[in-house]
Design goal:
This protein has three domains: 119 residues, YaeB-like (Elongation Factor Tu (Ef-tu), domain 3, Beta Barrel), CATH 2.40.30; 164 residues, 60s Ribosomal Protein L30, Chain: A, CATH 3.30.1330.130; 45 residues, no CATH class. 26% of the residues lie in helices and 25% in strands. It has ten helices and 17 strands. The strands form five sheets. It has a six-stranded antiparallel beta barrel with strand order 1-2-7-6-3-8. A five-stranded mixed sheet has the order 10-9-11-12-13. β11 and β12 form a beta hairpin. α3 crosses α4 and α3 packs across α5. The longest helix has 18 residues. It is elongated, with a radius of gyration of 29 Å. 25% of the residues are buried. Bound molecules: zinc ion (2 copies). The site of one zinc ion has 7 residues, from loops.
Length: 361
């Protein structure tokens, strides 16, 4: 077996330090001239796997006390004293200048020989075990709410919503605030109800942070077109939040408003405009999340919230034309006569879409 040194680490650290010390340390990797061509296109990767040689490690124990004094085998540790003295770390690639890479987080001291560099690829390099099926899948989210960790709530809400934007942030803020006002959110499905007055980005912030969703019937939609929500516990109290500062974004981010008008309202933005808007939205959303809720929302305590009953379980009906099954009350026809589904009967029907709830057909 032959291993070549392909480069060397340069940084200000001349002494061995604890691993955590290196998290923010910037290092240069000088790649040797004869290997420099191998760096072509490397800047497409944001993170790199760097394999290096602990040149100062001489001997090792197969089993011995490791970090924190625990007795472990060498392969069960990250000790630098190993049979082949190889270390490997995922680092952030900051920039490349010819054969020189600037990286962050490389836990190797000045002069450490580098033996390999590869792009970090999450599907192969990060095999965190699959999440287990949980009795309470929202436990982590609930904990974020309980601790008021708005930043992480918003980060996660983006996974549902598809982008970060100010109204998603507002929804997360309102949901988080209301749940904390109501105290421990009851685990029972449909016990906690959200009455939403709009279907917009705000609604996804509410659905994610509160767990009251379109699908679990804990979300009631009232088509008022207001950025507002009432969070309520059945048989108990509620709290309504209405976004009152509708000039807040315009006043605080005037140049973003222009961009928004061009891209969203007039639909005349270029691709570059769209990217710029997404960046701006993200920035504003994570800014906005720290504004005190009472500053931008009207908050009302609701003593006896007006809520519909629990979702009923309907009998099945079958369409005499297409044969498809539907919830019996949705059938069209005389009570004892043939039943048709709504589309076979030619409508009309109710549709919730970008325009709100409306009758079609
Ligand atoms: Zn949005
Ligand atoms: Zn039908």
């Amino acid at each position: 077996m032959e291993i070549n040194e392909v480069g060397v680490v340069r940084n200000d650290v001349d002494e061995t330090k604890k691993q955590g010390y290196f998290r923010d340390v910037e290092s240069i990797i000088e790649v040797k001239e004869e290997f420099a061509d191998g760096l072509q296109e490397i800047e497409r990767s944001g993170y790199l796997q760097v394999i290096f040689y602990f040149s100062r490690s001489e001997d090792y124990d197969l089993v011995g006390p490791r970090h924190g004094g625990k007795i472990r085998g060498v392969f069960a540790s990250r000790s630098p004293h190993r049979p082949n003295n190889l270390g490997s770390t995922v680092v952030k690639l900051l920039s490349r200048d010819g054969a020189t890479l600037k990286v962050e987080g490389l836990d190797a001291i000045n002069g450490t020989p580098v033996v390999d560099i590869k792009p970090y690829a999450a599907p192969f390099d990060s095999s965190s075990p699959p999440e287990e099926k949980k009795e309470d899948p929202r436990r982590k989210i609930r904990r974020l709410v309980k601790t008021g960790d708005l930043e992480n709530l918003l980060l996660k809400a983006g996974e549902l919503h598809g982008h970060y934007c100010p109204f998603l942030a507002l929804g997360v803020m309102a949901g988080n605030y209301a749940l904390n006002q109501l105290g421990e959110a009851p685990g029972d499905m449909e016990k906690l109800v959200a009455v939403l007055e709009t279907n917009s980005c705000f609604s996804d912030g509410i659905q994610y942070s509160t767990g009251c969703t379109f699908g679990n019937n804990a979300l009631v939609y009232r088509d008022y077109g207001k950025t507002a929500v009432t969070m309520a516990i059945r048989g108990d109290r509620g709290v309504r939040l209405y976004y009152k500062e509708d000039n807040y974004l315009k006043e605080n981010y005037p140049e973003r408003t222009e961009l928004f008008d061009r891209v969203v309202k007039e639909r005349e933005g270029t691709e570059e405009d769209e990217r710029a808007l997404k960046r701006a939205w993200t920035e504003i959303a994570f800014d906005l999340i720290h504004v005190p809720v009472e500053d931008i929302f009207k908050v009302e305590q609701i003593r006896t919230p007006d809520l519909p009953d629990y979702a009923p379980i309907y009998e099945d009906g079958y369409c005499d034309l297409c044969g498809e099954k539907f919830m019996a009350p949705k059938g069209v026809g005389e009570e004892d006569g043939p039943q048709l589904c709504i589309p076979c009967a030619g409508g009309p029907y109710l549709q919730l879409d970008g325009s709100g709830l409306r009758e079609v057909g």
